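Every protein is a chain of amino acids, and every chain bends into a shape of its own. The fold becomes a row of whole numbers, each drawn from a learned catalogue of backbone shapes. The protein below has been through that process, and both of its lines are reproduced in full.
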Amino acid sequence: MKKVTLMILILILAAGLTGCSSSSSSSSPTISIKNLIMVYGKVVNENTTEPVEEATVTMGTENRVTNTDGIFTFNLAAGTYTLQVDASGYLHYERQEGIIDNGEDVILPDVSLTPLSGTASLSGGITIHNFSQSDSYSTRATGTGVNGSSSVNNISSINSFAPDNLQKTADRSVTSPAYKPGEVIVKYRSGISRISTQQVEPGLIIQDKLESRNGEIVKYKISSGKSVTEMIDSLRQRGDVEWVEPNYILKVSKIPTDPYYSIHPQPSTQWGPVYCNLEAAWDLATGSDSIKVAVLDTGIIPDHPDLEDNLDLAEGADFVGGADNQPVEDYQLTDDDPTDESPLHSIYVDGSHGTHVSGIIGAVSNNNEGIAGINWNISLLPIRVLGADGNGTSWDIAEGIYYAIDRGANIINLSLGRTSINSGESQLERDALQAADSAGLLIFAAAGNNGSAVDFPARYPEAIAVGAINYDRELASYSNTGPEIELVAPGGGSSGSIYSTWGYYENGQTVSSYTFMEGTSMATPHVSGIAALMLAYGIPTSQVRARLQNTAVDLGSEGKDDSYGFGLVDAYAALLDEKLSNPEVFLAEMVSGEYYYKSGEVTAGSDGSFSLSNLLAGEYSLVGWRDVNNNSIIDEGDYFG
């Protein structure tokens, strides 16, 4: 048909020229016609030879979708093309095709797609971190093969940037990492002269050049209306271009330098912040000394080197053993020294409980010393309401609450309680909490550690009751339960306790150190510390409680239950006011520098566990991804690893 059409056209042109009455002796103009070639192909199932419908076929910059018979067509100029085919449920397919203009239509050999279905399986766990290096995960498989299964210990999913391009042909579109708009970087092949780089695609302005040993690298500004992606696709077609990419934007993630903090948490390290998603939150906020948290506890080791810069000792107070014959709201200090006098060992306590709690909230962070507090900068107001035996009275605690109100505290942390068994509500306590609530303070209280009903004062509606999970993300065996529970946080247990600042009182002197403790007393400052971080970020006090509830990670049933409340507190989600979905896991394969999905996605459980099944045997990249902004695109701010 092409030949016939061409001959008719030439005849018409010839007739036109013959009909001209001209006495000019000049020669006729040369006419050149560039043909496009009709290219046909078919996509079939490798096993059944049945046609594959709605497969996406790419040749050059053109895309086609197969019809019900698996047929696709292109109109192409002569040349060499990369034929790529993707279809849901099949492996990615790629080959080179040379298209020759011999005046005939081109019929390509069938494309046989391999179905994504096998008998191998893969299971493991995923742990989320927030740093921009992609070498953090290692996998160890046990058992392989089509008839076997693989078990992977861990994936570290990183708040990093996606690979150059991760593609999926079904319902998920994936783009490149964040990059500067309107800029591309081009690497020319070795031996290409500087002159040729001036003759690149129209619409580019040279901004910078670098002569490397293996060719020239040029940064261009796009002056045309093309997007970065469109310009990259265009430049990749050039024979003198070795590679082209966007001008990527990188950021430093805030990982503290404190030696007891670990980006790979273990039961023997400081694992609480990772479980509360603080590494991502620290990219947004690290606290402020304008936020004041009153810690009503056993007091403080005032000269602890990892705490003293964040302590408000000038307003610290001691209410233990003082007079109680005046109205409680007119409190009378025993003295203004909140030093914890708890000894190293006794039948009651083992060192400073209040110092341990305070360190979780606000140990000085990123100082190459000790641990990392949830708030790197904060004002901690130590108020001693419990004695060296670990006990205190409702009167002293109520006085401490009124004192915190008058000293401008934003938050009160109550890692203390009395059992609700054989014990009723105290109007004295309730009045003090209502006064704090009315004054706009947030109150966080420990649920209790006897595996029964929630303790007072956490039981009061003005307080936010906090339960504890262990290292396995399960409810700690000791954690009290009941309808009053709102949130849970790391409290430790048999699988690993909470590491924090600590010390003790001996021979009239304080000794500073660190230790492990466990209990809802440790879980509570994780939540009050995150609330302080939210206030420092500018979130109004009136929104904090609801945000913490609405963004918590479900560990029990979906929604609120009596064991986990609304779930595990998530600092990053609370700052964003966005409940983050559980991460997704899938297999991918790199082809020509691009990643392609090689399995269906599965959503990991709240404990990070996942299982992939019906897999083809082979070697793949195992990928974890949490879509933070729920846009179905791997982009800046997402977790990817």
